[in-house]
């Protein structure tokens, strides 16, 4: 089977999971035009020989880069790495002629080659190429990336993003970060602080201390700021934190109102949130440059967890105005809302996908919690997980993967981060130093 045919199989899964996405390009650069309504794929066999160290200082770095690229690709569930023990020939120089017959013999469908150099100043250069083995052709142009020695993981993620995108036709998501709540202590006395990490759990940095409870961090569209809720004054209030400087400021609101569940607008210059005052909870918006909060809903119900559509024109939120927790969509300027959730159970924490075609949510029904997705009109509801407690979905930058919190039952139960493909495949735990909850995915890093 050629790589182009396997690309078609990948397009089948993409069509099932996310109809409307463009089909991937084939090995010759032309688009695949496929309309298939059902199908199952096997992971694509890919060979990733160790990247070549082009200087003595690059030897360990080349091994580390190869390891991260491999982990990124195989972690998607769409790729299967062929073990080096099966290789007939290797790659000893970046510009050597590819012996396609040797790679065909071990059924490698794609081949990734790379080289790493470290100069005297410690600057790192990474080069890579991607080959369609059965078509005996390079897939896309070779690429060279440069960075400092402390940015080597980002360089590896960028290589993996390029490989992923060229084979699947979808945007990558490996060069991104996740902000979350790091938890310590027993279930009835948890200490919580904000932390940020690479999407795969590496490079954890703490942004706040654990002196007060923090909840629901949310990245800005540019990835340089985080909104979150803090109880440091004894009641929930929203803070805006600069990730680089760790400087923060409170979002001012009038009187003794409680504020929570913040989220940025797509432009990043305003915020939408819940404000509770006088026993009533509604959704408000406010420009971060100044001004007063603008009320967007006005009912006796509890209205919370707002999330903008990618174009900023609409907001999805949860409300119990119908008697139970359900999902609604309204204009970003407020006004009449339409209900979109109608299945059994209760729905909450909706989040619009980056492509704008799906909404992820938490569902509680018959004693179980689920992470699910539905179309923006409420159709095609699909539950991806089921457990004692799954909640708080967040989308990868390409809209293919969802990360969420899973908490185990019992007095000793702990919260952990998990991810799942929106087809419902490839459910796995995300590595964190300890208990973790409330993840929020950043956009791709610049």
UniProtKB/TrEMBL annotation:
Residues 1-27 form the signal peptide. It comes from the Bacteria. Keywords: Cell cycle, Cell division, Periplasm, Signal. InterPro entries: 6-blade_b-propeller_TolB-like, Tol-Pal_TolB, TolB_N, WD40. Pfam families: PD40 (PF07676), TolB_N (PF04052). It is found in: Periplasm. Residues 32-139 form the TolB N-terminal domain. The keyword Cell division applies. The Tol-Pal system is composed of five core proteins: the inner membrane proteins TolA, TolQ and TolR, the periplasmic protein TolB and the outer membrane protein Pal. They form a network linking the inner and outer membranes and the peptidoglycan layer. Belongs to the TolB family. Part of the Tol-Pal system, which plays a role in outer membrane invagination during cell division and is important for maintaining outer membrane integrity. This is Tol-Pal system protein TolB. The lineage of its organism: Bacteria, Pseudomonadati, Pseudomonadota, Alphaproteobacteria, Rhodobacterales. The gene is tolB.
